[in-house]
C-alpha cells in the first residue's frame, strides 16, 4: 500500500457520482475581501479547478489559520475549519492522519505560515501527511493593517517599521526544500492556467505539498509582483520550470538559460553563450533536494529572476499511510484489541 | 537456625539510593510481589528531574516508598519503618522522616570518606553513636553482591549494579514476599543479555539467602493478605489507569482514539502506554510541540475521533488558545493535565494541585470548561471515562486534572468487568436539521443538553464551516451582532453549568459531626486516612470529596452550609477555597502546604483535631 499510493494523492477519497461545476463549490456566504484583492482570483481558480478532481464534496476539507487568506474556507461549499493563528497545519495533520478518505487543504498566508506557525509548517513538511498547503504570499500583514511580514524585503517601511525593517525575509520555497518537503511549487494569483496546473500536480501528490502563491495585496503592498505580471518585464524575470525541459527563459536578445555553477549552485547565463548540452534540464523528481534548493535561490538578489512551477516532486510514503499500516500490522500480529483482556493483563490475583 | 517470625499489620519501607542505583525498579518489584501476595498497598516514588544527577550527592537521591498492610489503607504512609540507604546521601536525605526505632539497612561499601564528605558527614554515622535511636543494619551490599556473582561472565561494573537486586532479595526474605514473579521479570527484562539476567537473578537469590542464613537479621515479618472486596485485582499506577481509561472510553464510545502529545514529565507515560495499544485503533501522534499536540487532537475530533492531549501545567499554558478554539467550535476534546510543581518549570517530578484556576479560567474570553479530578491512582481509570462522557455528550473540551502523586503512585485495583462500564456512545448527525428540511444548522442545540449537533466530514449534504470567530446562534455563520454575542456567551456558559454531575456524597457515619473536611483530587487518601485517625480517637468529623470541579455538584452549597466549619486542605494556596467563597459566600478554612509532596495523614489529623477543638 505504501508504494502503490505514490502519485495518487486522492486515491483513497471517494469520487462524486455526477459531474460537478464551479457553482457546487461556492458557499452561500458573501465574500468579504477588499475589492481588487488577489484572493478573489485564487478562490475562483480553486472553485473552478475542484470539479476536475471529481471528488465527493463532503470529503473535501479546507482548514485555515488567521489572516485575510484564512477566511477562504467560509467561501467554499465543503467542510471547513477556520482555526487559530499559525496552527492550521497541526489541526489539518490530526484530521488527515485519522481520515485518509478526506482531501485536506490548508489555506495560509506568509505571516500565518512563516511567523507564528513556522514550526508547524516545517514539521508538517518533513512528516509528509497527505495535505495540500496553499501559502498565499503577499509579503505583508493585511488583516492587522500593514506591518511587514517574514517575506517582506529588508528595509520595508511600514507602520511598525518607520525606518525600515531589519530582518532578512524567508524564501518559502528554500525553506520548504530545506525541510525536505516532497512537493514544492510556486505560482501566481493572476495566472489561472499556471495556478491550476500546479494545483493539479499538488493534489496528485500523496504527502504534504506546499504551493506558494504570489498574491497581490492592493491595499498594503500593491504591485509587489507587478514585474512578474507586466508584459514588458515578465518574460525577462519569470523562469517557468517544467520537468524534463531545459531551463530557459526570455526572448530574442534577452534569451537566457540556467546552467550548473561551481560550488553546487546554478546560474543564469545568456543563452547565446552556452551550448545546448550545458543548459540544465529540470528534474523535479531528483530525490536529493540540493539542485531544487539551488533553483530556489535564483531570485537572490530579490526578484532578479523568479522561477515558478514545480521545484520538487518526490514520492515518499505519507505519514498517514505509515500510521495506518502500524495499526493494521498490530492487529495482524496480535489480533484486534479486546478491552477485557487489556484490563486483566499483567499480574492479577483473585479475592473471593 | 530457626528464626523468629513476627506478625505485623502494616509496614512502610523506603528504598533510597543514587538516581542510578535502580531504586524505582527495586520499589516496583517489591510492590509487584506485595500485590501478588495480596496485601493492600500504596506507593510514593520520589525522584529528581535530573536523569543522572552527580553521583553520591543529595540532589541525586531517588527514593520509593511503599506502604502495605493486612487491611485497606489509603496512603503511602507518613514515616517509614524501614529505610534502605544505598549511600550516605540517601541516609542523610531521608533520616529526618524516620521515627525513633525504625530500621536502617545501610550499604557500608558506599560509606567511603569521599562519599561522606560529599554530603557533609565529618564522621561515618554508621560507626559513631549518632544513629543510636534507630536499629542500624550495616551491610556491605555491593561487595556481597560482587562476591555472589564471582564466576559469572560479567564485568565488575555490571556485578556492582546488581546490588539493588541483592537488597530486594534481602527485603523479600525479611517480609516473606513471593519471588517467582521477580525472577520471571528479570529473565524477561534482560532476555537479550542472558548473562546479565542470570547475574541479577543470582544477586536477588543471594540477598534472600543472606537474610535466611546470617545472624544480622534474627527476625522476619509476616503481614497477612488484606481482605478486600471480592474480585480480580491488579496493581496499577495513575498514569497507566488513566491510559486504560482512555482506551476504555474509546471502546465504550465506539470512536477511534487520537492522542496528540508532546513529551513532558510527569505525563509522558500516558503517551508511552497508549502507543503500545495500536490494535485498538489508537493513533498516537508525538507532535513538534504542545500546541501541535492539542491542535492535531482537535483536528482529529473535527473528523470524528475521540481527541485527547496529555501534558502537565507548562503544556496546558501553551495549549490554552487551542482549548479556547475547542470551546468556540464546541468540539469534544480531552485535555489531561498531570499537575506538577510550578510556576514555570518548577519541580517537574514533584506533585501539586496548583493548576485548578488555570484549568478553570486560563483562556481568553468567557471560556468555560468542565473540570474533572481523579482521587486515587486507580480512580484515574473512571475519571478518564467520565471526562470522555462529558466531552462527547456536551461537545466540549474537558480538563482532567491528575497530578504527579497519582501518576506515579500505585495501588491495587479491582479490575471492572467491561459490562460494568458506562455506554458513552453518541450519534453523529447525518440529516439536515433546518426547518426547510435541506439546510444544516451546526449550532442548533439540543434543547436539553444545549449540545450542538456533530456532523463529521464525509457526511453528504451537511457541509459546513466552523471556526474561532463568533458565530450566529443556529446557523453558525460569522456574526458580530452584539446581542447574538451576549446570547452565545451565556449559552456556552449555560451548557457547561447544566452538565449532569452526580451529587456530592458526604461520609458522616453518626450524622452529628460539626466539621466537614472537603477535598478534591489526590488529597483523598491522606484526608480519608486522617479522618479515620480522628474518629478512632473519638473525634466527630465528616468528609466529602469533589471529583467534579466544574460544574460543581448541585448540592455542594447545601452540603457546605450543613456544617459549622468546612476545612479544605489543598496542595496550593487555596484555589478551590477561592472558588467556593466566591460562589457560596462560605468562609472555608484553608490548610495549604506546597512542598511538592502529598499531605501526611498524621499532619492532617492534627489539623482536623485543631479545627474541631477550636470551638
Features:
heterodimer, A: 352 residues, alpha/beta, Rossmann fold, eight-stranded mixed sheet, globular, B: 615 residues, Pyruvate-ferredoxin Oxidoreductase, domain 3, 4 domains, 20 helices, 36% helix
Order of helical and strand elements of chain A:
HEEHEHHEHEHEHHEEEEHEHHE
Spatial shape of chain A: globular
- Total E-strand runs of chain B: 23
**Segments of chain B where pLDDT lies below 50 for 5+ residues?**
none
Classified in CATH, the superfamily of the domain at 22-238 in chain A is Thiamin diphosphate (ThDP)-binding fold, Pyr/PP domains
Question: How is this structure best described in words?
Answer:
The complex is a heterodimer of chains A (352) and B (615). Chain A contains eleven helices and twelve strands. By secondary structure, chain A is an alpha/beta fold. Chain A has a domain at 22-238: 3-Layer(aba) Sandwich (Rossmann fold). In chain A, a hairpin with a 5-residue loop joins strand 9 and strand 10. The longest helix of chain B is centred in the first third of the chain and has 20 residues, at 194-213. Chain B is globular, with a radius of gyration of 27 Å. Chain B is built from 20 helices and 23 strands. Classes of the chains: A alpha/beta (352), B alpha/beta (615). The interface between A and B is large, with 59 and 70 residues.
Helices and strands in order, then pairings?
The complex is a heterodimer of chains A (352) and B (615).
Chain A: H1 38-53, E1 60-64, E2 79-82, H2 88-98, E3 103-109, H3 110-116, H4 118-127, E4 131-137, H5 172-178, E5 183-188, H6 192-204, E6 209-214, H7 226-229, H8 234-237, E7 238-241, E8 248-249, E9 256-260, E10 266-270, H9 290-296, E11 306-313, H10 319-334, H11 339-343, E12 348-351
Helix pairs in contact in A: 1-6, 3-4, 5-9
Chain B: E1 4-7, E2 10-18, H1 23-37, E3 40-46, E4 61-69, E5 82-85, H2 88-95, E6 103-107, H3 113-118, E7 135-139, H4 141-148, H5 156-161, H6 163-174, H7 180-189, H8 194-213, E8 219-222, E9 231-237, H9 238-253, E10 257-261, H10 268-275, E11 283-286, H11 290-302, E12 306-311, H12 313-329, E13 333-339, H13 356-361, E14 371-372, H14 379-394, E15 397-403, H15 404-408, E16 410-414, E17 465-467, H16 482-497, E18 506-507, E19 515-520, H17 524-536, E20 542-546, E21 548-550, H18 556-561, E22 565-570, H19 575-584, E23 589-592, H20 601-613
Parallel strand pairs in B: 1-8, 2-5, 5-6, 6-7, 10-11, 10-12, 12-13, 13-15, 14-15, 19-20, 19-22, 22-23
Antiparallel strand pairs in B: 2-4, 3-4, 9-16, 14-21, 18-20
Helix pairs in contact in B: 1-6, 4-6, 4-8, 6-8, 7-8, 9-10, 9-14, 11-12, 17-20
